[in-house]
Amino acid sequence: MKVFVTGAGGMVGRAVVEHCMARGDEVFAYDHQRLDVTDAAAIRDAFARDKPETTINCAAWTDVDGCETDHKRAYLINDEAVGLLAANCRQSGASFVTISTDYVFDGAKDGFYTQRDDPNPTSVYGQAKLAGERRAQSACARTTIVRTGWIFGREGRNFLSKVFDYARSGQTLKAIEDGFGTPTYAPDLARRLRELAQLDLPGIYHVVNAGAGTSYADFTRRALVAAQIQGVKLESVSMNSLQRPAPRPRNSRLRCLLSEAINLSPLQNWESALNDFARRFTDTTASVAKPLT
To answer: Which of 30, 103, 125, 205 is catalytic?
Structure first.
């Protein structure tokens, strides 16, 4: 396939580029320096030059608290830019796959959110991402929406990288006991994004690693054990006690009703994925494998 990847400098974008190239695809990789996804003319020129068969959009502004205080930028990148990319896919005859978020749900439900649940985002970030979903579907009939959450992997800023940074610095980790989700390993997500692009079956998919999900606190503890990091001080806290600018869903666990129906097997269990990540992390960071004192 000829694959156009936006947000290629981020954690998921890099994983997508790496996976697609390994599968023999012709990949056009654009980070924010090579392509401003809010620039309609630049996008049009890039599509005319590259003539992709599919676009996988990994570009987003994922600073949840930042979005809460800068509504204009939140909607520009997470909504309007998505529409621009989708419209260019329609005009060029390409399919469009774009990443959305578990934050489109309010978190009030117990159990898993599926495609049968109505979105009700409580943060500007979630509202902008939901608007981007709808704009993309209106602009291009061949749009695949991929909702995911709790993404972790090599490089980029994500929950686990913060955990390890704090652990290395000797600071006390605040572990949220009452926030729940389903972790998603970036390489597994990348593989599924390409599979969905190849299948070209438009719709909304929930893509996370298999398993019952977990709390931030339990995820933190398991990550430290898997990475052989010892001596870290953990403080159990409630989500509300952190008093962050943007509200977060208390529960954002996801499950997909469509994947098995189209013969897509579940992704590996998140615990196995976490162990794989930790193994790679300790292989490349020798100091992390030593006990902290």
So the answer is: 125
